[in-house]
Design a protein that fits this description.
The complex is a heterotrimer of chains A (287), B (292) and C (288).
Chain A: H1 11-42, H2 48-52, E1 55-56, E2 61-62, H3 65-96, H4 102-116, H5 119-133, H6 140-165, H7 168-177, H8 181-192, H9 194-210, H10 213-216, H11 236-246, H12 251-284
Chain B: H1 13-50, H2 55-58, E1 62-63, E2 68-69, H3 72-103, H4 106-119, H5 124-142, H6 149-173, H7 177-185, H8 190-201, H9 203-219, H10 222-227, H11 245-253, H12 258-285
Antiparallel strand pairs in B: 1-2
Helix pairs in contact in B: 1-12, 3-4, 3-6, 3-9, 4-6, 5-6, 6-9, 9-12, 11-12
Chain C: H1 2-24, E1 43-49, H2 54-67, E2 71-77, H3 80-89, E3 94-97, E4 109-123, H4 133-140, E5 158-162, H5 167-176, E6 187-189, H6 192-200, E7 205-210, H7 211-219, E8 224-226, H8 236-240, E9 247-254, H9 260-269, H10 275-280, E10 284-285
Parallel strand pairs in C: 1-2, 1-3, 5-6, 5-7
Antiparallel strand pairs in C: 3-9, 4-7, 4-8, 4-9, 4-10
Classes of the chains: A mainly alpha (287), B mainly alpha (292), C alpha/beta (288).
């Protein structure tokens, strides 16, 4: 993006250069410190056995196999529920409601409020609504549905931004060609809005995988291999919490589990980005 | 966009179907908030009836075992932690995004973005744990006790930074190329372009990012529980320990019965009220200026 | 081409839907189908309660499942009060309570499974070797605020205490005859390990945690040390023979007299066969 003049022309430009590189450097340093800590303490404990064996002695030994399966199932339920609802609402807000309509403003406001609800309140709500009222009990399904509620506002707001960024000329050209709005949406606008959707997805997946307080009360603490979506299953973040705060001597495996989580996240983000950009976006927008 | 918002001229029935199914989906999303508020009110009712709302701000202290329920010090704790972290994270995050797009050589930009995406996914317990074993002892060296408002602000900053950085990154990417080329044609140097052309063009995305990150800062529970000391007091300096409303719920919910439990739900309602106030004032500030 | 893509998309949707339906026809609810014969013990037990007890009961549950393959023991956390509430409402079969039973809980059936001592910890480099009960009271009520007043360096004391309602706090205060409003602390923590890490990270901190936890961490090189209380050294041995003054019983409770699978599990948890698990989790088995 070096289309603007790169060499600083005056003191203000120099100051901006220093500040921007300084900010980036500070952020990188702090994060490398954090990640380095995790890698340093956790790498020696990660092995194939660690990834597939069940936990023993309250997690101090053994591995995290069943926990990885539970986490993937919870994430799967969360995404399969929140993606349709999220994209649908974002499309409605961006395409079918005017900027000043009451419905649009109310929905946007309530989504912003939802984004700020503390994770523990979601946990208590999920427990009361999904576990008790709907009768699902402590289960992966309850956990996934609660996480879907948490992830929705982020997903919707950033997908909406993605749709707003698509130039109006696309829509007008499609209308001129006589395409129905559904076709325009599915074949033209959705692929074009993929970058916004992607940010929402990445932030949402990040939030979901990182959630602890909400899952303790909904998907539970059981570290056995789950046999169905109605079984209780321990998520990776809860396992890390238990090992570091509740179980003495669990620090080593807590670091190792955190490292596995970071790698899992890297893999998910990479795959999702690649699929979205090369599968959808490139069809519409030239590189 | 507004010209296409009414559907009456569309010839295709699929469009009508689409519109109504989308409205149904959006209602589900909106209904969740209402459900949560109803849930909080129902659970908080016993405390509101037995203790009364005024006492939650006028009692001498927070000691539920003796029937004292003053929320004000924790309210201040939440406000200070949120304000401090948002004030630090917003410039850092926006500058990070600017770095990615306009200052970094391509070979650095992509890994930097990946790094920030990764940080969005690290669990709050890992941040809290790291804060507890690395950051808190460092602060304790400067000024005991260590777990403090400062530690809370720093950890929250690190946690909400990815949100604002990634949203800003996406909005900067959406700035049309013509604007940048126009600025270059006018001979504007880099920072002047960014400040005068890019930021105004990207302002709706930046604003959304700030709202989302503030929401996250208010709602964070686990990490702040581990590093901020959890003493119920109005802080007199950044090195004093504080307890936020969220940490209070997390700490005491496990062992609370009856009125104490209902009092914790009242603090949940106070949090919701804070968030609603934040969102409404943000909407009022930006009315008409963000979109359209 | 377009129709083909539509059809394969529908097939994908249909198979996803049927997968979800089949997957959700999974395990039924709590307490169903418990047979009473020992050989045929089957069914699901739901146990909720204190997070201190959760790892212990979880491990006992795993061994129970290996003895009776058709049984399932699901352990959830949420705190002692949650355990009591869930048992009373019938949402759980057994509750875990990490303290002595309160008066209003007397109509529950309580079965002690282990004991846990509560000891005072200091940072390893703190030169103070012992504190009398009066000094501890003075430190925790804020009357003594500097280590030099008890024979240590000239540094302010960082007092670490537990959040209200935690059983460790209640046991500690009961021994010192204090109320929670009297305690003036600089740091309030939630779980044991948070306390250990806070004291390990601050050379001038004092706190109290479960003795088993502190013993294990000391053996792993964490820079803390246990103080003796009332002249008795703090260790799992002294808790076991009853000489250590601050300890709490760990219970599992039911609402009605236990039958069937519940009864079998409770008897197993109280038997000598699980003493090694109890020791492995750094608690003290009951001497019967």
């Amino acid at each position: 993006m070096a289309e603007t003049l790169s060499r600083p022309q005056n003191p203000r430009e120099w100051l901006a250069l220093v500040l921007v590189w300084g900010a980036a450097g500070l952020v990188t340093a702090v994060f490398c410190w954090l990640l380095g800590d995790i890698v340093w303490h956790g790498l020696s404990h990660v092995s194939w056995t660690f990834l597939t064996a069940p936990p023993e002695n309250a997690g101090r030994r053994g591995g995290i196999g069943p926990i990885l399966v539970s986490t993937s199932l919870i994430l799967g339920v969360c995404l399969s529920v929140s993606l349709p609802i999220g994209i649908g609402t974002a499309v409605l807000l961006a395409e079918f409601t005017s900027n000043h309509s009451l419905f649009g403003r109310m929905t946007r406001r309530s989504l912003d409020v939802l984004a700020g609800v503390p994770s523990i309140v979601f946990g208590l709500f999920g427990n009361a609504f999904f576990c008790k009222t709907l009768g699902l009990g402590f289960s992966i399904l309850s956990g996934g549905l609660t996480l879907a509620c948490m992830v929705l506002p982020i997903l919707i707001r950033s997908t909406e931004e993605g749709f707003r960024a698509v130039p109006t000329s696309y829509r007008l050209s499609a209308a001129a060609l006589g395409l129905s709005r559904t076709t325009t949406l599915v074949h033209l606008l959705l692929p074009a809005a993929v970058p916004g959707l992607l940010v929402g997805l990445v932030l949402g997946v990040g939030r979901a995988i990182a959630e602890t307080a909400a899952l303790i009360f909904t998907s539970g603490y059981v570290d056995r291999m789950p046999e169905s979506l109605l079984d209780s299953g321990r998520a990776l973040s809860i396992h890390i919490f238990d090992l570091s705060m509740n179980v003495s001597g669990g620090d080593a495996n807590a670091y190792a589990s955190a490292l596995v989580l970071v790698i899992m996240l890297l893999a998910i983000n990479g795959t999702v980005s690649w699929l979205a950009i090369y599968g959808l976006h490139r069809k519409i927008v030239a590189a | 966009m507004t010209s296409l918002s009414s559907n009456t001229l569309s010839r295709w029935s699929t469009d009508e179907l689409l519109c109504w199914s989308l409205r149904g989906i959006a209602t589900i999303a909106g209904a969740i908030v209402i459900l949560i508020v109803v849930f909080l009110i129902v659970e908080a009712l016993p405390a509101l009836q037995h203790v009364g709302l005024l006492r939650f701000f006028t009692d001498p202290s927070w000691h539920p075992a003796e029937g004292l329920y003053n929320l004000t010090p924790m309210l201040w704790g939440t406000l200070f932690a949120m304000t401090g972290s948002v004030l630090i994270a917003t410039p850092l995050g926006i500058l990070s995004a600017v770095f990615c797009h306009y200052y970094a050589p391509l070979i650095l930009a992509r890994p930097y973005r990946r790094l920030i995406e990764l940080l969005a996914g690290i669990p709050s317990v890992v941040y809290g744990f790291w804060g507890l074993v690395v950051m808190v002892p460092l602060i304790a060296e400067i000024q005991p006790p260590g777990p403090s408002l400062l530690a809370g602000i720093l950890i929250l900053t690190i946690m909400i930074l990815p949100t604002i950085a990634l949203m800003a990154d996406a909005s900067l990417a959406n700035v049309p190329q013509q604007y940048l080329r126009g600025a270059a044609a006018l001979g504007l140097p880099r920072w002047a372009t960014i400040r005068g052309v890019v930021f105004p063009a990207a302002k709706s995305g930046l604003f959304t990012g700030v709202i989302l990150e503030t929401g996250r800062a208010i709602g964070e529970t686990m990490a702040i529980l581990m590093v901020s000391g959890n003493v119920v007091q109005t802080p007199s300096s950044v090195f004093a320990p504080i307890r936020t409303l969220t940490a209070n719920i997390a700490l005491e919910m496990a062992y609370a019965l009856g009125d104490h439990r209902a009092a914790l739900f009242v603090s949940g309602l106070v949090l919701m009220a804070m968030i609603v106030a934040l969102v409404v004032s943000a909407g009022w500030i930006s009315r008409g200026r963000m979109y359209g | 081409m377009y129709q083909f893509m539509c059809f394969s998309r529908w097939k994908a949707c249909a198979s996803l839907a049927s997968f979800l339906i089949v997957a959700s026809l999974g395990i039924p609810g709590t307490g169903a189908a418990q047979t009473t014969t020992v050989e045929k013990l089957s069914g699901k037990l739901v146990i909720t309660g204190a997070s201190t007890l959760a790892p212990l009961i979880g491990e006992i549950g795993k061994r129970f499942e290996s003895l009776y393959p058709k049984a399932r023991v699901d352990v959830q956390t949420g705190g002692s009060s949650r355990g009591v509430a869930d048992v009373l409402q019938g949402l759980a079969d057994i509750g875990m309570v990490s303290r002595a039973m309160k008066d209003e809980e007397k109509d529950l059936h309580a079965f002690p499974v282990a004991r846990d001592g509560v000891g005072i910890i200091l940072h390893k480099e703190n030169c103070v070797q012992a504190l009398t009960d009066e000094q501890v009271v003075a430190i925790y009520t804020g009357k003594i605020a500097n280590w030099k007043d008890v024979g240590g360096k000239d540094a302010p004391i960082t007092v670490v205490t537990k959040a209200e309602g935690r059983s460790t706090l209640e046991v500690f205060l009961h021994y010192l005859k204090l109320k929670n409003t009297d305690v003036k602390a600089q740091v309030v923590i939630g779980d044991n390990e948070q306390g250990v890490k806070t004291v390990a990270g601050n050379r001038h901190a004092i706190g109290y945690v479960s003795i088993g936890t502190a013993e294990y961490d000391t053996s792993q090189g964490v820079p803390i040390k246990l103080l003796s209380v009332g002249g008795v050294a703090a260790s799992t041995e002294t808790v076991k023979n009853g000489t250590f003054p601050i300890s709490r019983p760990l219970h599992i409770v039911t609402r009605t007299p236990p039958v069937g699978l519940t009864k079998a599990f409770i008897e197993y948890a109280q038997s000598k066969a699980v003493h090694d698990i109890i020791k492995q989790q750094y608690f003290v088995p009951l001497v019967d």
